[in-house]
Amino acid sequence: MMVLAAGLAGTACAHADMGLVGEVGTTGVGGHMVIPLRKNMNARLGMNYLSYSYSGSTRDMDYDLSMKARTYDALLDWYPREHSSFHVTGGLAYNGNKIDAQARPNGSGNYTINGNSYSAASAGKITGQVDFGKVAPYLGVGWSKAAEKGWSFSSDVGLLFQGSPHTSLSSSGCTAGAAACNQLAADVAKENARLSDEVSRFKVYPVLRIGVSYKF
After folding, report:
1. Where are the beta strands (DSSP E) in 39-124?
2. Which of 37, 116, 144, 177 could staple 154 via S-S, CB 3.0–4.6 A?
């Protein structure tokens, strides 16, 4: 993707009528540089950033989750009809999306994992992270002006194929004794498998963006 980006950036120098897009959506806040390649084709280089917190759960555990989405993409927009704003988009993204997870004790101050109960005070913290494939293909459609100069609105609807997530859940700071801490570690490993099943639906990330663009 770096080779593609470098080539497109070089092409940009030969075009005076490139544009800039500022946008918000499910990939966060960001923007793209628009580079005309042909009458019915544009290239876009961009980045987006998003950070938010939410709650989630598996069969046994409740979690405080913090998602950080960072994408850097190189896209091609193809306009099948002249003078139409509709385009089909494909490309690749460097995918920095990740989710930080911290287990939350129940109302009694305990963790219940795999049928076993542990006091959070002696079990310590149970934390983990969900990571995704770093190279993610993108496919979608959108609406934007292909060649007209000045201000306009744009939008994108598509899918980012980020692959099967990888989870890494572990415990730290256990003071409950060697036997209990070893059992806790084994139960956390089984809970990690459940968490992996829970986040498997994030293999495909939905993209919806709206923006304002200016072409020079």
Report:
1. 41-57, 62-78, 86-95, 98-104, 110-113, 116-119
2. 144
Residue where the block lists tokens 């000045």? 150
User: Are the beta carbons of 88 and 78 closer than 8 angstroms?
Assistant: yes
Enumerate the H helices of the chain as residue ranges.
Answer: 2-12, 120-123, 178-199
Each residue's pLDDT tens digit, 7-57: 544 544 444 578 999 999 999 999 999 999 988 899 999 999 999 999 988
What is the spatial distance between Cα 97 and Cα 67, in angstroms, rounded to a whole number?
A: 7
Whole-model pTM above 0.85?
A: no
66 contacts: CB under 8 Å, gap ≥ 6: 51, 52, 53, 99, 100, 101
Length of the chain: 216
Tokens standing for residue 183:
């059992």
pLDDT average, residue stretch 77-85: 90
Instruction: Over range 75-95, report the average pLDDT.
Output: 94
Tokens representing 91?
A: 């490309």
**Spatial separation of the C-alpha atoms in residues 200 and 137, rounded to whole Å:** 17
- CA torsion angle 187 193 197 200 (round to 10): 140
Q: What is the pLDDT of residues 111-143, one digit of tens each?
A: 999 889 999 999 999 999 999 999 999 999 999
Other beta carbons within 10 Å of 16: 8
The rounded distance, in Å, linking the Cα atoms of 162 and 181 is 35
Structure-token match 């072409």, residue found: 215
